[in-house]
Amino acid sequence: MPTKKQRPAPSLRARLLGDRLRALREDRGLTLKYVSGYLGVDFVDVKDIEHGTRSAHHAQIVALLDLYSVYEQGERHFAIGLARDAFRLSAWEGDFDAPELPVSTLDSLWLESLAQRIRSYGAILVPDLLRTSGYAEEVVPRECGPQASESEVVWRTRALERRQREAFDRRPAVTVQAVIPEVTLLRPVWRADAVWRTQLDHLAKAGDSVRVLPTRAGYLPGMDGSFTVFDLPQKYVPTVACSAYLGGVAVHEGDAGQWYADAFDRLWDAALPPAESAQLITDLSHQ
């Protein structure tokens, strides 16, 4: 007997938009029936928008923001952008050469593009935004796995370079913090010593952005897997974290996102100060 096809889970972007619109409506004391009448749509349409399962047109979002008396330009701009990106992230899905990207991966890329602070812990490998091109060329094919085509590997390598440019060229500047275990810096993932030394030199020059967790450090929750925490400037957007999962990305929000944020702060405090971290990295590169 055929089973009913399940709807794919809504993106984080769609859920954030829906949650915000519902909070604004409830704060104004308005009912779904009133809002649907105001927009001239069915009651279920508004309900689905708030649940993140239906897209909203630009004019509808503008009308809702007016109805809810949201006139602060920053919040209006963010909400309109969320509506635009909720079901299709054109910045990445519009790339003809891009492979099909899972919703969670697109959510991670979206978070990275808007975050004012990015905190990464690299349990196994150097975090993406701090990789040199040589290191990335060695690592990306292995991360993609043997099933990946050569064109996908090339695209993902170039996509990483694009992500790094967009993150570090952003104004106002994004704050990037990374904790890297000492053992990660010793892990051989390259075929030439020059790649290793170039990567270490790059990290040594990162200043206050990088701290090394020495091998003598005791166990701390969170240190057994890589993850990244994104802090967006909008106060009503909760801290969100992404971790590697089955070759893809798992998105953690709410209490789970805060757990990863707290875990990163503990790892950051347990790691060597920036100057000592830079010296340790430099010593390793001279071995």
UniProtKB/TrEMBL annotation:
<dbReference type="InterPro" id="IPR001387">
    <property type="entry name" value="Cro/C1-type_HTH"/>
</dbReference>
<dbReference type="Pfam" id="PF13560">
    <property type="entry name" value="HTH_31"/>
</dbReference>
<feature type="domain" description="HTH cro/C1-type">
    <location>
        <begin position="21"/>
        <end position="76"/>
    </location>
</feature>
<dbReference type="GO" id="GO:0003677">
    <property type="term" value="F:DNA binding"/>
</dbReference>
<dbReference type="InterPro" id="IPR010982">
    <property type="entry name" value="Lambda_DNA-bd_dom_sf"/>
</dbReference>
<protein>
    <recommendedName>
        <fullName>HTH cro/C1-type domain-containing protein</fullName>
    </recommendedName>
</protein>
<dbReference type="Pfam" id="PF19054">
    <property type="entry name" value="DUF5753"/>
</dbReference>
<dbReference type="InterPro" id="IPR043917">
    <property type="entry name" value="DUF5753"/>
</dbReference>
